[in-house]
Write a structure and sequence with these properties.
Blueprint: H1 3-6, H2 16-28, E1 45-48, E2 59-62, H3 67-70, H4 75-80, E3 82-90, E4 99-100, E5 107-108, H5 110-121, E6 125-132, H6 133-142, E7 147-148, E8 162-169, E9 171-177, E10 195-198, H7 203-217, E11 223-225, H8 230-238, E12 244-248, H9 249-259, E13 266-273, E14 282-288, H10 294-307, H11 309-316
Parallel strand pairs: 3-6, 3-7, 10-11, 10-12
Antiparallel strand pairs: 1-2, 4-5, 7-14, 8-14, 9-12, 9-13
Helix pairs in contact: 2-6, 5-10
Keywords: Signal
Protein name: Amino acid ABC transporter, substrate-binding protein
Domain Solute-binding protein family 3/N-terminal: 84-321
Length: 339
């Protein structure tokens, strides 16, 4: 995923006192409490994709507590009856994963919705708060939040402070006009002779430039373009000035859904691991190291996978191509030096 979303460096240059002082404001700000998204759900039901502003198909999922899994919870969390979930989507959000919904107040998206599904399996009330990316980690560190669901990439650097329970592939992808016949097919060789746009400073830019260098050694060309904004990139795509846009896969899925009824619909032309060819990158629920939460969260995710509700959640957000077959606790992450 893009550096500015899932691989942004952990907070630096802010004193602990300042960070904790600002955390309450960050967590309570825009969309801080997601109860508005859950009040109409009946017991045993979690509705995903509500007020999604077209990013998802609203879907009611039947999910109840699994006693054998909730029994694994740390005693303090079980007694509290609440799972404190933090999402690092301030100030602007990143649809379809986490953003303020069509009612202009509800924190919605695939990430907070999945946190609510996990909480249901654990028999806990979800308390979902929004924060800046940096303050999300401060909230986990300080105990103000139990777990982060915010498109957080599993990295070996982050494992020094956090435990992970994986639940989605960390993929980047190619967006092309629907009428285009080009597909990536997992082969960088297919990029020869193409013009591809990518955002500056992102992980996918790093991957694309590596492919460009490989093709150059083979006597082939790949033209890489950068634009000042996503709107400018999309105009270049519809205007035929680029063949494809290489971006975070969830963003591609979102824009494909948004353009479906337009004169210039787009489609996905293939995905690639955000960690590169040697490792499948993973997005993971993030808890404080040794908090005892990663195992029950992973078991809750695996229950959702087995029950089919996980697949329905992904399908609601057009993210089925990011499905994992199992949730793992602290799986191999993005290597040190590449985090």
């Amino acid at each position: 995923m893009p550096t500015q979303l899932s691989r942004r460096s952990l907070i630096r240059g802010i004193t602990a006192a300042t960070a904790v002082a600002t955390l309450a404001t960050g967590l309570a700000a825009c969309g801080g409490d997601s109860d508005a998204a859950t009040t109409t759900d009946t017991a045993g039901t979690v509705t995903v994709g509500r007020v999604s502003n077209g990013a998802a198909r609203q879907t009611a999922l039947k999910v109840s507590e699994v006693k054998s899994i909730s029994a694994e919870l740390p005693a303090a969390v079980r007694r509290s009856g609440t799972l404190k979930i933090v999402v690092g989507a301030l100030p602007d959000g990143f649809p379809p994963l986490a953003y303020i919904g069509g009612d202009q107040k509800t924190l919605t998206g695939a990430e907070p919705d999945f946190g609510r599904l996990v909480a249901a399996v654990l028999g806990l009330k979800p308390q979902v708060s929004n924060a800046t990316w940096e303050n999300m980690f401060v909230g986990i560190d300080s105990g103000k939040a139990d777990v982060g669901f915010a498109n957080i990439t599993d990295t070996e650097e982050r494992k020094k402070k956090y435990d992970f329970a994986s639940y989605r592939k960390d993929n980047v992808g190619f967006e092309v006009l629907k009428k285009s016949t080009w597909n990536f097919d997992g082969r960088y060789e297919n990029l020869a002779g193409r013009t591809v746009a990518v955002d500056n400073g992102t992980n996918q830019e790093k991957i694309l430039l590596e492919w460009q260098a490989k093709l150059k050694k083979e006597g082939k060309t790949l033209t890489v373009k950068h634009y000042a904004s996503k709107n400018a990139t999309y105009l270049a795509l519809t205007g035929g000035r680029i063949d494809a846009y290489f971006a975070a896969n969830p963003g591609v899925a979102y824009h494909v859904a948004q353009t479906a009824g337009s004169p210039d619909p787009t489609r996905s032309a293939g995905t690639f691991s955000g960690a590169g060819a040697s490792l499948q990158g993973l997005i993971a629920a993030t808890t404080k190291k040794d908090s005892g939460l990663a195992e029950p969260i992973a078991d809750a995710v695996n229950h959702l996978i087995r029950s089919g509700q996980y697949a329905r959640w992904l399908a609601a957000y057009h993210l089925s191509d990011e499905a994992v077959t199992t949730s793992q606790v602290n799986p191999p992450g993005l290597p040190l030096g590449n985090s």
